[in-house]
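The record is given unchanged here:
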Amino acid sequence: MKTDPRIAIDSNPPKVESQKNRWGTIGILLFLVIFVSFFASRLEFVLGKTPSLDKTFTD
């Protein structure tokens, strides 16, 4: 009878850890997307070559 609650208690932490890992990966992906978008926008602002890039893509 005592082993049943222990198993239940032991089975709970892994679920929490998996959720933390999922949120961690989601956070990393969001951070990468925001960083890449910010970096790209800053490059466009600094270089100012967006129209030339658009022309090359259209051609």
Summary: The chain is about 90% helix and 0% strand. The helical segments are 3-47, 50-58. The chain has a mean pLDDT of 71.
